[in-house]
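Folding Problem: From Residues to Backbone Shape
Fields: amino acid sequence; protein backbone structure tokens
RECORD BEGINS BELOW THIS LINE
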Amino acid sequence: MGSLLVGGLVFVFLSMATSIGLVVRGRLPDHHLNAESKDVIRLATAVVGTLSALTLGLLIASAKSSYDNAEVEMRTAAARVLLLDRVMAQYGPETDKARQLLRELIERRLSRGWTAETTDETFGNAPGEYQDIEAVQAVLRSLLPRGTVQHSLQARAVEVSGMMAEAHWLLVESGEEGLPWAFVTVLVCWLSLLFATFGLQAPANLTVLSILLVCALSVAGAIFLVSDMANPYLGQIRVSDAPLQSAIERLGKP
């Protein structure tokens, strides 16, 4: 589900909850909303509000951690690509085919996007990314090194290409994580209850209604940001592919 849609639905739910509270307020007898009743309502909503704040804080921390990890992964991937290309360049012209395959791999990755859903898709005769990496590894393993230096460079190149393959499968396996939707569902229920009590206690004038709608929009914006950052390769707030763009400009140089 898109982050904008999630934020929009949260705003609708909170607005509906506020409206329900206002409608119920108009139909309740006066003694149900006397000072003592409002004090009890405030105490109860304080508990729910505290739980909501703690849950939202956990979701924000989780989303920020996912985003930061994705940024590190992108930079690490770019560094490994450059390192592998330089190691192969030092080996000699025998690695020209592997270097070309590596460049094509990165070009396809940039065109497809950096997501688990697209990373292994095939386009026409173009293989999935794991097949691209394995093709590079196959060329590297088929090399016949002459001397200690080339043998060391071959071993290093195979090692780095293995780390790239490992990062690929880690992305595939973690691609469905995203937000813990059970947390989000419970949080939205708590927030809806809070806004319903706001409407229950609020006088139905334009100033109060405007403030409640702005609050609902602010909360929905926070949920949108959490949802968007939990999927760092998609949405409005995504990890930049600038490190890979910079890396591809350096590939193939002698």
Observations:
- The chain has a mean pLDDT of 84.
